[in-house]
Design a protein that fits this description.
It is built from ten helices and seven strands. By secondary structure, the protein is an alpha/beta fold. It is globular. The mean pLDDT is 94.
Length: 206
């Protein structure tokens, strides 16, 4: 089973499947500045029509500092929408761990947070889980190209783990599972079963 995050073109048509996530990506503030309010309207419509499994991808990317305040405001809008409809939140986090920790302290979120393509360290991961036990960490291509991620993976609680392709056509999710199982020294079928349990646990939250 997989969750599909809508592209900007798909969002405009309010396309959805059984497991769809929709949000306004922080990069779109630069790429599509004139469309942000329209994108938000489409996300809100999908959420209110019960057509979403999750809200996002949304978040904060500090490699775009000129849009930082707008990113924060946009993320908070997504957070409020996720809380209102009790939907998981799919998060884009680039060098913004402290920002999310602050939000957790101030807002005490009640819905699951899924950190897409997590690149943080073990200390940050544990801080997230301490403040919000319903945090999940997803990994994909980084299992190949990031020694830091491969080192981190065994310390991630397996009940908080997801794997992904990030819609990259050259990746097969089975290959991601193989890489993760090898890194974890774990039977791949056991890994699949556990990730499936994690998915079902989130599905029961809304």
């Amino acid at each position: 089973m997989s969750v599909e995050c809508l592209s900007e073109k798909e969002l405009k048509t309010e396309r959805s499947t059984q497991y769809t996530s929709a949000g306004v990506h922080p990069w779109w503030l630069e790429d599509f500045p004139e469309d942000i309010e329209n994108f938000k309207s489409h996300v809100k419509n999908l959420a209110e029509s019960n057509k979403l499994w999750a809200i996002g991808e949304t978040g904060i990317d500090r490699t775009y500092p000129e849009y930082l305040e707008q990113q924060r405001e946009l993320f908070m809008w997504h957070l409020e929408l996720a809380e209102k409809h009790q939907l998981p939140l799919v998060i884009h986090n680039v060098r913004a761990g402290a920002d999310f920790l602050q939000v957790m302290k101030e807002r005490r979120p009640t819905t699951p947070w899924i950190f897409h393509d997590f690149r943080g360290n073990e200390v940050l991961m544990k801080d997230f889980l301490r403040l919000h036990p319903q945090c999940y960490f997803s990994f994909g291509l980084s299992l190949d190209n990031s020694p830091q991620v491969r080192e981190l993976l065994p310390s991630v609680p397996i009940q908080n783990l997801f794997l992904e392709t990030d819609s990259q056509k050259h990746l097969d999710i089975h290959d991601i599972y193989l890489r993760a199982a090898e890194c974890l020294h774990m039977d791949i079928e056991f890994l699949k079963s556990q990730v499936w349990l994690n998915f079902k646990k989130l599905a029961r939250t809304h």
